[in-house]
Amino acid sequence: MTLVIKSLGTTAPSGAKKLYRDALVVNGTLFHVDFSNRGSLNNFNIRKDSLVYDLSRESSIPLGITTTGSVNLISDIDLTLTDGKGFTLENPNLPVNKNQGLYFNAADLMSYLVNNQPHCVWVGWARRKINADDTNNELVRSVSGGDYSIKNIRSNITYNTLTPTFGGGSYQIPINEGELFQFAIEFTSGQKNKVYLNKNFIGDGSVVSSGFIPADKFGLFNSNVGTPTGAAFYRTFIEDLDVSGRKVEDILQKDWQYVHGIGQFEGVEKRPFVDNY
User: Fold this and answer.
1) Which residues contact 200 (CB under 8 A, 6 or more apart)?
2) pTM of the predicted protein model
């Protein structure tokens, strides 16, 4: 069966809800990518120089944020998403270089975070491969020029630990090899970050978060240690809670149901990374 939608050139009535590109995007979403959503990638293509699109742009652009991404490789080796539509740099022939990976030109996003220091949350979905060859993966790293030490958005993953940093505050989250997990870090200026795993609150950061500092981009798997091969990153978003008015617990519960096709999303096909690496 083929479904055809015909536009009659009409507009939505005043007060109608805006249609976004992902079920979790709302007014206040600053950035959102899901590699299993065709809106993020053209035909799921992650070859050299492939473009990656922000699913939140109907929400973020009115806030002055335009984020663009591309796959940056130093060779013409083809990469593909995992079976679960996860992004990874898994290819034994890929040369080691810290300047390759998936980079987002995120000067607007970083400026927004620096200028507003908003009450916000960063959510991500990932999985560590069982018996991976390497001991450490650099999942995410924010960068300012050539400075790779920026702690705005950052996370490393080892065999059994995820260490995300958001707004200068970090936390070690226990994980299990081979298991999909949802993590979230809630930032409030002048307080310790709140940390969540699989929609549940698990604790506060050990120190008060230092806040966001100037940066111009962030990347996935841009490792200066070695070519990361042991993890896949599926979905991530950042939301300004001051703008959206939502509670983190409600966001994570809705995100969990959407990804698994349950609850209010019963009947919606679950994301492919639920059952596949």
Assistant:
1) none
2) 0.90
Whole-angstrom distance between the N-terminal and C-terminal Cα of the chain? 30
Q: How far apart are CA 109 and CA 96, in angstroms?
A: 28
Sign of CA dihedral 250, 128, 74, 99: positive
234 is written with which tokens?
């599926």
CA distance 51 to 32: 14
Residue that has been written with the tokens 């298991």 in this structure: 179
The predicted-structure confidence for 78-99, as pLDDT tens digits, reads as follows 788 999 999 887 776 676 665 6
Integer Cα distance of 224 and 97 in angstroms: 6
pLDDT (tens digit per residue) in 18-48: 678 899 999 999 999 999 998 999 888 888 8
Question: Which residues of 27-96 form beta strands (DSSP E)?
Answer: 29-34, 51-53, 68-72
If one compares 133 and 69, the residue with the highest pLDDT of the two is 69
Provide the pLDDT confidence category of residue 5 given band limits of 50, 70 and 90: very low
pLDDT, mean over the chain: 86
d(CA 47, CA 229): 16
User: Which residue ranges form the domains of the chain, and what is each CATH number?
Assistant: 29-274 (2.60.120.200)
Amino acid at 240: D
CB 84 within 8 A of CB 277: yes
3-state helix, strand, coil in the chain (%, to 5): 15, 35, 50
Task: Give the Å distances, CA to CA, from 24 to 12, 16, 19, 63, 186.
Answer: 21, 17, 11, 17, 16
